[in-house]
Every structure is written in structure tokens, then in C-alpha cells.
Amino acid sequence: MPARDRPRHRRRNPAPARQRGVALILLITVLVIGVVWYTVGALGKAAPTTADREIITGRALEHAKQALLAYVAQYAARSSTIEPGQMPCPELLSSIGTASQGQAATSCTNASYTRGRLPWETLGVDEIRDGYGEPIWYVLSPGFRSAPINFGTPGQLTYNGNPNAAVALLIAPGAALNTQSDPATPPAGCSKVNQQVSTRNTASLNPQNFLECSNDAGNNTIVGSSQWTNDRVIAITAADWITAIAGPVADRLQRQVAPALEDWRLNISPGWGSSFLPYASSFSDPTTNDLCGNVNFLEGLAPVADTASASCPTLWTGGNVSQLLGLLSTPTCTQVSGAYKCTFTNLSVLPPLTVRITANVPNIGMTFRNPIVGGSPDITNDRGGTITNFSLSIATSGPSAGQATLQVDIQFPLFAIGTTNVIIQNPSPAFFADSRIAWFINNNWARYVYYAIGQGAKLGAPSGCSGPGDPDCMTLNGLPPANGSPSDKQLILALMGPALSGQTQPSSNITDYLESRTSGAVFNSATVTSTFNDRLAACPFQQTPASGVPIAICN
After folding, report:
1. pTM beyond cutoff 0.85
2. Which of 10, 104, 238, 475 is least crowded, fewest Cβ atoms below 10 Å from its Cβ?
């Protein structure tokens, strides 16, 4: 057979098989390296060093502090919050494993410390754990749950041996300890514990299974590296707390308090016979100031005394009853049960008895009081008399400046013989119940706010503040142009911050409180720094939103 006709045997190329073998070896190598890498990484994560745990714990405590302060700030800024600066309650010790885990208790005592775990869900953050995987604990000072809460509210927790040093303590509990068999004697404030119990994380939690050395009682003392405690503690001080809420409180002065006072001037004070803002209470130690205005003082503290006193007479007095027709016995007028009672006896049958009653309130021009009206329920009598010719007026100058006078005639029907009682309600501070300012009054914020009115807003001003540049207006420099003219202010409120370097509080010296006032009727607004911490509000004031259309806050 010719060679060319013989069948050919094809030789196979061994290269693909060798390539597949090499690829398999490479794949196995990568898998082995991956497994080794994962194993090493997992071992590293499973056994972090003590330093790693401390770093995690430090970050956790700082995260918890910032979350808590941020919550307090936004809560204070809400228009509906009646106690700005209120701190949230800790989580209930019994909430572990329930639907309320992570939530602040709805109520907790204001009279003593409260402790529990940090209410992370209420704060709007993920659960925060320390370097040992333990949730952060939270101890709250007395005084931060109900009114009055203000810059003067003291933190009452002991921190690092210093009493009244903290508003709150945040504690990372670390790993469970068992020092029961330790032969040594614990240092002062500490005791032997056994936290390694099966019920450690069972509701209701026992704080002593987590916290040592009186930390569960809000009495933290750093005892240094020790077998007796592994707690790590960070404090929220009064300064931290004030920094968080000062901006929101000042914002509410502008959004709520200033407009409410301006509304009183425009809509309520005319009932006394004149449109005005009360005179300021002359500045003195804010902790003891009577908060009652003084004649001709345009600057000082806000005149928001809510009860009458010898230094702030805001009740009817000097009553007089005179007969216009008929014959009556000698009348008497006295304060009784929160009202003014005038009593007299009709001594004749004919003609019908008609009397005129007058009375005064010495300090209406120095306080915020609602005027009364000439009818029930403000004026009543028990003999069926008819009220006529009711009037209120207010003295705008002279020695009686600020005194309001009431006059009313009452005509009685025929045969109204006998003793008659006329009841006149006292001027009420009901204005303070206005939801815009109730928080301001109830928490004594007026003791931390400087109050100034322009010449055009005072009692008896011949003309009001008519616009920018009017000398009867005040000036507030430093605001952005979007907030309106600086020289048309009828009212300025300055939230006075805590004492700065060189200042002493409490004090009767205004320079220990106020940095923004440059001269009479001129104030400066500026960024808060280490040398300036006033925050200003004013009327009129405007905001210019993104739409570009200015909105008047008060004018």
C-alpha cells in the first residue's frame, strides 16, 4: 500500500491537560491562602488586645455622650417642649427582653439620681457597646426632669471625687468581675463583687452585676487600675449641657417669646388704656431680683413676676364706694380669696340705689397682666345690680406712673335692701399661660434674659418706633441683612450665658453677664466665643427662607 494511502495516527497535544492541571493547582493555592487569611483574621477579631478594647470603649463613651447631648438639644428646640433642657430617663431595668428595650422610661424621679442602660432607641442611634460587648449605662442627676430647669440647675452627681460635678454619667461596665475570693481589702467606695452570675442579663437588671465602686449610685470615684473595678466613665458636665441647649433656647426666645410679648403690647395692653411694654426690673442679682418693673427703667430683667408681693403690688387696692342715688352704710373693700370685695348696705327703698366703685392697681405698668372687663365673671354682685360706665385707665407719668384705675357704676333694682357684696377679680397673669411662653415662665428663664425696650414702646410714649433710624427705636448690629434693619427694634432680649473668664456670677454687676450691650439702646450680636456668649432676639425681626420672600416674626 502506498505510503500516502496509509491511515494517519494524529498525535495529541498535551498542553491543555497541563494547563488545566496548573489552573487547578493555582485555584487550590488561592483557596488555601484565603482560608489561612480568614482564619488569621478571625482569630485576630476573636482575641482583640486590651488596648483594642480600650479604644473601642473610649469611642463608645464619646459616641454615647454626643448622642445624648444631640438629643437634648433637638428636644429643647421643639416648640412644644415645656421644659427645654430636660434629660431623657434611662432605660428601665425591667425592659430587657421586652418591646421597650432601648427606650427611655416614660417617667423617672426628679428628686434623686436614676440609673439604667442608655436609651439608644430613644436617642435615635444603634445600640452602643463597649470593648467587651457590654451596653453603655447611664446615670442621671436629680433636677433635670421637671421645672424649673435652666442655666442655674446644678448637676448633683459626684465625678472623680468632686461633688455636684456632673449632670449625667455614662459608664462602660467592661467584663464581669468576681472579686469575692480576693484576700485584699477594697479601697474606699469599693466592695467585693461577684458579677459572674447566670442571671446577670435577666430582667430586672441588678446594676451591681455591672457597675462597681458606687458607680451605680451616681457617686463615681476613679480608683485607678485595680482588680476592684473595670468601669470606664465619662461625664456630661453642666457646661456640656448648657452648650447643647443655649442655642435652642435662644432660638425659642426669637420664635416664641419675643412675638408673644409684642402681641401683648399690641392686643392686650390697650385694655388698660395704653399700648406699651412694661418697664424693666432694674438689674440686680438675677437669683434674687423681684422681676417687677421699675418706673422709667427701659433695660434690666424681664418684668414677669407672676404673683403679687409687697415689692410688686399688682392687686386692687384703695377701693372706694360712693352713692349716686339712695342711701348706703359705710362700705368696706378688702382683698379676699384672690379678689377684691366691696361690701355695703342699702338703707333705703326709694329711690333705687346706684353706686360708683373705684379702685387702683399700683404696678400694672411694670408687669404683664391681663385687664379685666366690665362684666361677669370679672365683676359680679349678689343683688342683681346692672353694671354701667365701666372704665380702666393708666397713669403714664408723674408719681403714679404705671398705676391703673378702675371705675364702674352699678345700679340696683327697687327694694334691693340689705347687704350687697361686689366682687372684682384681681388682674391675672393669665398671659403667662400662653403656650408660646409658658416654658419661659415656668422654668424661670427670665432670670437669664436681659430685657430692653425702646423709647417708643414704653408706657406713655408720645409716638412709637416708626421704622429704621427712629430715635425711639433700639439698634441691634451684627445680624445678617436677611433679618431686617438693625435700627428699628422695639424689644431686645439677650440670653445671658454662664460666667466667662473674669466674670463672677451671681452678681449685681451687669458686666458679669452681658457682653452685647455697647451703649444705651445699642446692642451687638456676634458669634459665640470664649469672650462672648450672649444670644440675641428682637422685635421686629424677619427671616428670609429659600423662597426669597421675607417672613415677619414680629413687628
Report:
1. yes
2. 10
